[in-house]
Write a structure and sequence with these properties.
Helix content: 10-25%
Shape: globular
Largest sheet: 5 strands, mixed, barrel
Strand content: 25-35%
Strand order of the largest sheet: 2-3-4-5-7
CATH class: Alpha Beta
CATH architecture: Alpha-Beta Barrel
Radius of gyration: 15 Å
CATH topology: fumarase
Number of helices: 5
Distance between the termini: 19 Å
Number of strands: 7
Length: about 180
Amino acid sequence: MKKIQTPLTPDIISSLHSGDDVLISGVLYTMRDAAHKRVVEMLESGKNPPLDLNNQVVYYCGPTPARPGNIIGSCGPTTSGRMDKYTPKLLELGLKGMIGKGSRSDEIKEAIKKYKAVYFSGLGGLGAEYALAVKKSEVIAFPDLGPEAIYRLEVTDFNAVVINDIHGGDFYLNL
């Protein structure tokens, strides 16, 4: 198990290989379909996005409301393929990591290599377990989207598996 810290550096990214189990600590930003669409529309209209994605990790997740006394509700990963049409633009902006579930398109795998990024998978069905890794949560953009707003999460030992790396590795093809 490799322990890694966000924001991701070139050294961290180059050390990761498909199949590596990792524990991520630092900041993750949640973004799902609606938030991706809004960010790309902002960029296309010449506006700045609501966050600096340079060297950051985006978690494809829409957290449920927190119960009293909890930091966040269940926060499991969603299917990554729905974000594929937006991903190249975000990688161009410096995004270095993505966490979701499921495989990525060939276009995204090539973009991961080109922009020196990494795709991690979380495990579906473990949303309550992932919530335990969240130490702080705050909405930073698009609160009108409810659970699809962009959240800034501070996490400790968030468990994930490297699926696609900068070396062209694809964990799903090796199963």
